[in-house]
Amino acid sequence: MRLQEKVIFITGGAKGIGGAAAKVCAGYGGKIVAVDLLEDRLRQTVDEIKAAGGDAIWAVADVTKRDQVKAAIQKALDQYGRIDCLFNAAGVDRIGGFLDMTDDEYDFNMNINVKGSFICCAEAARVMIPNKKGRIINTSSIAAVREEAYNGTYCMSKAAVSMMTRVLALELAPHNITTVAIQPGNIETDILRESFTNRGKAEGKDVREFYAEMEATIPMGYIGRPEEIAEVVAYLCDDRSAYIDGNSILIAGGKIMA
Ligand SMILES: NC(=O)c1ccc[n+]([C@@H]2O[C@H](COP(=O)([O-])OP(=O)(O)OC[C@H]3O[C@@H](n4cnc5c(N)ncnc54)[C@H](O)[C@@H]3O)[C@@H](O)[C@H]2O)c1
């Protein structure tokens, strides 16, 4: 992977898939700006990158707050002078059946997953356009194409992220900015653990039973690791993947075939 000198701005970069992408991309020479709500975890991730000889900074920002996103982008520009790649990994999954979900719970999933990505895409594109080059990577989900009971607003939010990616590709390609989404399957992170616990409960099952049922839906037979997603993200940050534009890439151990 050729990421030397690439400035990669990662939301949700404190831990999970975003944290793994920060470490993997730094390992390939990228300069990382890790952005999240969780200051302690951000410091930890950045310290690990630096200890391994990499280059990274962090910024605390809520992706749903445009001012905070702009401030984080400014911090990236002050440190590195530009942003080459945006990886939107910040996301949440508030579980709930359609009939039980409150308006606040709906807003929580939609605001962070859709509006947060919308704001970060727009603000990053604004600073990429003068450079006539850029790469945006959004995080959709297998849930965008494979319906999940008791997880409706999450599925809806991720379908919106995939469509946002298609529209952005049309609008930004003339500026030599390419846009792509990843659609992870079931990946071992805090979101998955919480989601499986609550979906299991909603279906009257214990967590281990629900895990086993979910694993059985994955042809490769195991829940993926964040690093397996991070390697794809690194490839998507590499100029050699630039012709991949507008689509969503499923990374799910064969699950869509199950
Ligand atoms: N784990 C899976 O199985 C899976 C599958 C498909 C898609 N995804 C998506 O991958 C992305 C990363 O999730 P993960 O699995 O690594 O979970 P995670 O909980 O470990 O990471 C999510 C990160 O987003 C941050 N975040 C949440 N709200 C934020 C906000 N308003 N502003 C800034 N940061 C915020 C959290 O603090 C956390 O660090 C999410 O978009 C998620 O929907 C995960």
From TrEMBL:
<feature type="domain" description="Ketoreductase">
    <location>
        <begin position="6"/>
        <end position="190"/>
    </location>
</feature>
<dbReference type="InterPro" id="IPR002347">
    <property type="entry name" value="SDR_fam"/>
</dbReference>
<dbReference type="Pfam" id="PF00106">
    <property type="entry name" value="adh_short"/>
</dbReference>
<dbReference type="GO" id="GO:0008206">
    <property type="term" value="P:bile acid metabolic process"/>
</dbReference>
<dbReference type="GO" id="GO:0030497">
    <property type="term" value="P:fatty acid elongation"/>
</dbReference>
<comment type="similarity">
    <text>Belongs to the short-chain dehydrogenases/reductases (SDR) family.</text>
</comment>
<protein>
    <submittedName>
        <fullName>3-oxoacyl-[acyl-carrier protein] reductase</fullName>
    </submittedName>
</protein>
<keyword id="KW-0560">Oxidoreductase</keyword>
<dbReference type="InterPro" id="IPR036291">
    <property type="entry name" value="NAD(P)-bd_dom_sf"/>
</dbReference>
<dbReference type="InterPro" id="IPR057326">
    <property type="entry name" value="KR_dom"/>
</dbReference>
<dbReference type="InterPro" id="IPR020904">
    <property type="entry name" value="Sc_DH/Rdtase_CS"/>
</dbReference>
<dbReference type="GO" id="GO:0016616">
    <property type="term" value="F:oxidoreductase activity, acting on the CH-OH group of donors, NAD or NADP as acceptor"/>
</dbReference>
